[in-house]
Amino acid sequence: MSINKCSNDSTSRPDRLSWRHLKVITKNLACLVNIINIANVCINLRYWPSHFKLSMFIIIPKPNKALYNTPKTFRPIILLNMLGKLIEKVIGKRLQFQALFRNTIHSCQLGGFKQWSTANASIILIYLICASWVKNCSTSTLAFDITQFFLSINH
């Protein structure tokens, strides 16, 4: 289930729920069925209730900084309602499953997919190279380091 890997130590949200609360709630079968029904109705009606759109914006200072006089020393985060986040996770997993099941995603588009790592990408690349060799084709790849595009991120 989408909720099992979520941290119990999350910050309180606008709806005052945390993952810990939702884990307890979803253990009750009647509550779980109601949450699934809410998700299904949202999908079928193609409507996202305004309650799930409520958010809280907070700014957290980054640890171990000498001075806190520049915006880069702070991390802004947006906290969404937990029930909405849970339903978004479920919808995201459903969409990912359907996209992979129906083969609508190109094999090169691996970013953001669960259980797709650089090892998976390299296996696919090796497969594509070997498949082109069988057809007597040449292959080439281009690799570059994108860390220089994001200088403010600690790599």
In short:
The chain has 155 residues and is mainly α. It is built from 5 helices and 2 strands; from the N terminus they run αααββαα. The radius of gyration is 21 Å and the shape is flat.
What does this 3D model show about the protein?
The protein is mainly alpha-helical and 155 residues long. The chain has two domains: 1-105, no CATH class; 108-155, no CATH class. It is built from five helices and two strands; from the N terminus they run H-H-H-E-E-H-H. It has helices spanning 19-27, 29-45, 50-53, 82-101, 118-134; strands at residues 55-61, 74-80. A two-stranded antiparallel sheet has the order 1-2. Helix 2 packs across helix 4. The model has no long low-confidence stretch (mean pLDDT 79).
